Structure formats: structure tokens, C-alpha cells
Structure to design on (636 residues):
């Protein structure tokens, strides 16, 4: 595994305009900060896990990296090129190397195309001159890789189970031999037993094909299992970023601590004695985020300064970054 | 019992491991459609009617313009349906053979229906898909245009067009074609909006598939189901509109005819004991419309995503 930076995200911001019911056409739309000042580096072969509540901007962040939603400012540097400044045709060249896996396995497959066509689509798009026999060969190859029988090529998505559909989605993402795969909650729609299969499959493939992954989930135990680094997002802001072991053993931000304490431990005696940190209240509206630290409205440690000054996101120990005035 | 189950399981296992083709949604829909008896029978009857309108003339003794001077003016006594005289469906008051007239009317009515629906499907699908896929301001403007056109009373415009520009079948096509795509474009737009945010479209965009390919490969095939259903329901609507216009005497002009025109003639002479003049065209008209509606219904059931 080569240890070089393949992706650098710097101060990425994504805002959405939201207009509420009853607004006049000339009323200025409100800004919703979906992703606010997110920065991270990703080395080849690493897996970055992104966790957070629903609506915290995980998926938006992923989509902004591949330019599916327009970013307002910041940089996404992919092998030295800032993707956000590229035009459509230049971007197309990079799309080969960045693929995505989606949350709803069935919805991510076109119901009118058979499996062979679906898996071959990226190949046909980027290398339209590939002879048909080669395409078939590649499709079979990649289907075997993800654990699908290659005689299923002529079947249609509705004939498969959720886990199989997700494997098809993975096969489609792999056929161009990409460098980075963004997995947007790839397992949250699956049964627990199937989740493990899919996650293990992804890890095996990662090793085999030297993939880099961005893995979005809200299940911390799965993220811990697969990730080398974990980023915690809250209301579009980075709260904590560290190696996955560090985050688990020494969470420093109150929000992360609460999240980790909520992960059930499969041992009743430990589970009973465990101290559970409860977060009270609801997620504040991202249209009108709290002043200062975004988490202060629900934070047990909140002081006066938290409302005034936004905590800087800084390194507090080796490769462990936190945004909190009173981190542990 | 167990043996049967074992056999069944083995059969299923064999089916699973074969490398045959899977069942596409279209194939599924076809199977479901075939299971709908009313729709299948309607399809056959309609096919028979279409076939009749093409083959029928070869069996006709009288052409549609030839006048049987014997029957002229005394249709009630001489012009009744009979095989001997060659007037299988009888004659009209002018002594023209109703069998040939009905065939001619069938051809014209079906042509108006099919051509009108084709125009509507083509324009409506393109307009709706473009509007839905592009979204934003373009969508707003395009749909407001549709709203404005929709708010104009349809029959009124059609009648005005025919009165101002003269009564011709061409004008009728233009009039019906111009207005019947509106509903279609709305339906297609709604469906496109729904599809646009599906993950498979997003997956294609992430991969770098061009917009044009996305529309043709991913959006249109998924629209076809609803378009097919709506088109089969649109055909009888257009036939009805044409018949109504012809019934008013504004549509198809002599010597051509259509179901509506024939029904009008038949209804006008019903007092003189020539009920066949009404009943034959009416029977064709009613049966065909029923068939279209049953087929549309069957298609809708067969293609309904909720049943999948």
C-alpha cells in the first residue's frame, strides 16, 4: 500500500437555498449550510468513515466531492487537480477513478436493464470501443469478484435480493478499476447478517484492488470495523477526526463521547455497568445554526464562551483533531 | 406430497442455475396482460376490426361511392341488409352501400385516433421529459404555457379552427393534435421528476454518462409504461372528439365519412324504419371504444409498479 495523498478536501462549503411556504417570489431565500468548512486528507488505501446523525451533511459532503451538488467554496484536490474548477469533459476523465455505491440497493439499479448491461454501463461509457466479447469477459470477471454467479447476467434487478443488488452495485463501481469508492450508507438498507457480508466484501476488495474508500454510515460499530480514520460531523461541521482506534478508545469531543457510549456492547454485564451519555433536545435547524459552537445547545459541558466563540478545529494530539473549547 | 415438493424444489433449483434470460419487466407485464381476459379479448377484437377495415373492401359488392338507384329514396323497403343484394349492412338513404361506408368510416376514424395519439405521444413525451429533466425556470415557463393552453376550451377552439380555416381532415388533425398532447406532457413531466431523483440516475451521472444518454437509456424506457397506458386511453378520446365534431357536421366531409358522420346520418333517419343505418356504425364505434378502454385498463394493471 502506497502512502500518498490522493484526495485533499479543503474548507469545503455547500449551501442550499431554501424558500419556505408562503414566501413571495422576490423574498430572498434562506441559506442552509449543509456542509461547512470541511477539510480532510485521504491517503491511498485508507478508509475514511464519516458518521453523524441524519441531516448532518454526510451525503451532501460525498456528493459535493463528486460534483453532484455544487459546492460554494473550497477545494477538492484529486491527484493535484482541483475537481471543482474542472469543466464537464475534464471532469469526465476523473469520473472513471471515483465511483459511488448507494444506500438503496434496488433503487440504484435501472429496473429496465439487465444485470449485464447495468454492470457494463461505466465501461461502455468510458471505453465505447471495447469489443463486445471483452465487455462480457470483464463483466463476468467482476461479478465473480463480488460473489455473484456469472450466469445471472441476463436477469433483472427485481429478481434479486437486497444483498445481491448491493453486490451488483459494487460490481458496477468496480468494473473500471477505480481508485476511490464513495459508499453512501451502503449497508443501512440491509439485514444485519447481510451487512456483515457486504462490509467484509468491501474490505476484501479493498485489499485486493488497492482501493481507497469513503464510507458513510450511522452505525458506529460497522464504521469502526472498516475504517482507518473516522470523521464525526454535526450540522455540517467537523467535530472530530482521528484514527478509528483513537476515536473509540479516547473520544475527545462531548458529541463523539455520547455517540460512542450509545454503541451497544454484546456483553450484558459490561453493558449494564456502562455509563450512557444522553444527548437531549433535537438537532437545531441548519438554516439557523446556533452561534459559536454548533453543538452547544445540546452539550453538557457548554459554557458562556461556547455561544460567543466558535471553537477552532485543531490537532490536540497526534493526528487527533477536535473542535471543542473543553475537549478531554 | 413430499415427493412432489422435492420435485418442485429440484425444478426451482434447475431454473436458478440455468443461464437463460431473466424476466424483464416488459415480459412480466406481457404475462400479466395476457392473464387479463377482458384485455386480451379486446385486443383480438380490435385487431379483427382493424383487419376488417383493410380486408373488408375485397368482399364488398358495391363501392362506397356507387349509388344503387333501386335503393335510393326507398332504403326502408329495398335497402335493408341482405346477402343477395350485396348490401351486407343495407344502404343509406342515397342508396350507397353501408358496408363499404362503414369500412371507410372505420379507416378514417381509426386513422384519426392513431395519428392524433401518435402526435400527442411524440410531442407530449418530448416536451414533458425536457421540462421535467431540465427543471428550474425552464420547467416553470414550459408548464405555464401548458396551463394557459389547457385553460382554453378545447371543443370551442376546434370548432373555431374548422369554421375559420375550412372543414378538412387536415385541419381536424392539426386541431386535435395541437391540444391533445397537453395532458400527456403533464403526465410525462411528473414521471420524469420522479425518476430524475432516483439513485440509478445519480449512479449514471456519477459514472459520467451524458445527459442525452441518461434521457434515452434511463428515463425514456422507464416512462414508456405510463405513456403506453395513456396513449391507449387517448386514442378513444380522440376518436370520440372527432366523432362529436363530425356529428355536428363540422368534421369529415362527404364523400369521406367517419363513425361520427355515419351515426349522425343514421340517427337522422331513424324515424323511417332504417335502424340498420344507425346500428351498424354504432356497433363498430361502441365495440372499438370498449376495446380501447379495456386494453388501456389491462395495460395499466400490467404495468402498475405497485403490483411488482
Amino acid at each position: 500500500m502506497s502512502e500518498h495523498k490522493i484526495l485533499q478536501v479543503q474548507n469545503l462549503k455547500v449551501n442550499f437555498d431554501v424558500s419556505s411556504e408562503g414566501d413571495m417570489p422576490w423574498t430572498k431565500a434562506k441559506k442552509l449550510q449543509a456542509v461547512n468548512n470541511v477539510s480532510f486528507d485521504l491517503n491511498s488505501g485508507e478508509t475514511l468513515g464519516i458518521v453523524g446523525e441524519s441531516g448532518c451533511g454526510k451525503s451532501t459532503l460525498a456528493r459535493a466531492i463528486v460534483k453532484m451538488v455544487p459546492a460554494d467554496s473550497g477545494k477538492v484536490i484529486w491527484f493535484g487537480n482541483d475537481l471543482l474548477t474542472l469543466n464537464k469533459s475534464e471532469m469526465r476523465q476523473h469520473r472513471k477513478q471515483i465511483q459511488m455505491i448507494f444506500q438503496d440497493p434496488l433503487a440504484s439499479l435501472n429496473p429496465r436493464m439487465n444485470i449485464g448491461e447495468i454492470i457494463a454501463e461505466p465501461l461502455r461509457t468510458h471505453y465505447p470501443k471495447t469489443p463486445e466479447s471483452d465487455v462480457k469477459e470483464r463483466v463476468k470477471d467482476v461479478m465473480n469478484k463480488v460473489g455473484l454467479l456469472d450466469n445471472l447476467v441476463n436477469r433483472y434487478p427485481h429478481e434479486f435480493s437486497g444483498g445481491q443488488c448491493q453486490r451488483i452495485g459494487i460490481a458496477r463501481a468496480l468494473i473500471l478499476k477505480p481508485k476511490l469508492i464513495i459508499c453512501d450508507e451502503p449497508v443501512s438498507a440491509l439485514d444485519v447478517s447481510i451487512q456483515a457480508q457486504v462490509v467484509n466484501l468491501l474490505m476484501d476488495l479493498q485489499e485486493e484492488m488497492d482501493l481507497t474508500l469513503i464510507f458513510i454510515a450511522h452505525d458506529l460499530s460497522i464504521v469502526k470495523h472498516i475504517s482507518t480514520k473516522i470523521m464525526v460531523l454535526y450540522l455540517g461541521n467537523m467535530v472530530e477526526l482521528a484514527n478509528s482506534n483513537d476515536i473509540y478508545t479516547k473520544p475527545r469531543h462531548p458529541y463523539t463521547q455520547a455517540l460512542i457510549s450509545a454503541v451497544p456492547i454484546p456483553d450484558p454485564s459490561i453493558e449494564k455497568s456502562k455509563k450512557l451519555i444522553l444527548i437531549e433536545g433535537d438537532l437545531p435547524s441548519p438554516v439557523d445554526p446556533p452561534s459559536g459552537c454548533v453543538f452547544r445547545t445540546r452539550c453538557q459541558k457548554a459554557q458562556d464562551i461556547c455561544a460567543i466563540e466558535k471553537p477552532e478545529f485543531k490537532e490536540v494530539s497526534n493526528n487527533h483533531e477536535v473542535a471543542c473549547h473543553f475537549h478531554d | 406430497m413430499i415427493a412432489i415438493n422435492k420435485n418442485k424444489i429440484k425444478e426451482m433449483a434447475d431454473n436458478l442455475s440455468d443461464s437463460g434470460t431473466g424476466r424483464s419487466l416488459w415480459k412480466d407485464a406481457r404475462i400479466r396482460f395476457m392473464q387479463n381476459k377482458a384485455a386480451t379479448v379486446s385486443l383480438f377484437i380490435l385487431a379483427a376490426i382493424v383487419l376488417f377495415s383493410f380486408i373488408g373492401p375485397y368482399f364488398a359488392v358495391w363501392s362506397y361511392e356507387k349509388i344503387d338507384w333501386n335503393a335510393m329514396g326507398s332504403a326502408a323497403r329495398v335497402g335493408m341488409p341482405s346477402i343477395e343484394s350485396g348490401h351486407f349492412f343495407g344502404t343509406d338513404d342515397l342508396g350507397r352501400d353501408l358496408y363499404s361506408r362503414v369500412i371507410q368510416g372505420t379507416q378514417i376514424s381509426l386513422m384519426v385516433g392513431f395519428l392524433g395519439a401518435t402526435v400527442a405521444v411524440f410531442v407530449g413525451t418530448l416536451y414533458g421529459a425536457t421540462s421535467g429533466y431540465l427543471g428550474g425556470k425552464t420547467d416553470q415557463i414550459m408548464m405555464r404555457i401548458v396551463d394557459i393552453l389547457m385553460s382554453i376550451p378545447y371543443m370551442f377552439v376546434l370548432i373555431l379552427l374548422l369554421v375559420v380555416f375550412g372543414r378538412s381532415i387536415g385541419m381536424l388533425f392539426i386541431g386535435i393534435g395541437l391540444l391533445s398532447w397537453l395532458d400527456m406532457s403533464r403526465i410525462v413531466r411528473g414521471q420524469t421528476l420522479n425518476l430524475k431523483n432516483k439513485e440509478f440516475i445519480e449512479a449514471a451521472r456519477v459514472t459520467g454518462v451524458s445527459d442525452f444518454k441518461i434521457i434515452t437509456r434511463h428515463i425514456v424506457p422507464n416512462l414508456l409504461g405510463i405513456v403506453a397506458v395513456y396513449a391507449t386511453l387517448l386514442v378513444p378520446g380522440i376518436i370520440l372528439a372527432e366523432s362529436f365534431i363530425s356529428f355536428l357536421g363540422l368534421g369529415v366531409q362527404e364523400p369521406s365519412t367517419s363513425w361520427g358522420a355515419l351515426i349522425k346520418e343514421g340517427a337522422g333517419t331513424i324515424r323511417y324504419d332504417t335502424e340498420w343505418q344507425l346500428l351498424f356504425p354504432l356497433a363498430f364505434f361502441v365495440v372499438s371504444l370498449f376495446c380501447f378502454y379495456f386494453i388501456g385498463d389491462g395495460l395499466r394493471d400490467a404495468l402498475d409498479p405497485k403490483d411488482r
